[in-house]
Request: fold
Amino acid sequence: MMCGSTAVYASGQLDGAKLAQEKVCLGCHQVEKARVGPPFKAIAQRYQQASDEIEVYLAQAIRQGGRGRWGVIPMPAQPQISEEDALTIARWIRGLSLEGATNE
Reply:
């Protein structure tokens, strides 16, 4: 039985994975392998030592897009994803550096 923040973390991880699939993030990204964009685990590893504020940065990158962070292919803006959903996805991505799971 999980309790406290562990339950919230586990629930957030499941919600983030589900949202990444529902919001078609997996069309350009995979968990462990490069596709059009970098693998989610590479993103998690890049930012694993960053403060928790990096999750807000990643959520903004999801919604606003960007270029030059991971090579020449730009990340298109995804404004249809709500701020709350983008933050949930960002937390899930960041959490991939803390676990051994490979949910694709």
Remarks:
- The chain has four helices and no strands.
- The mean pLDDT is 86.
- Residues 27-95 form a domain with the Cytochrome Bc1 Complex; Chain D, domain 2 fold (CATH 1.10.760.10).
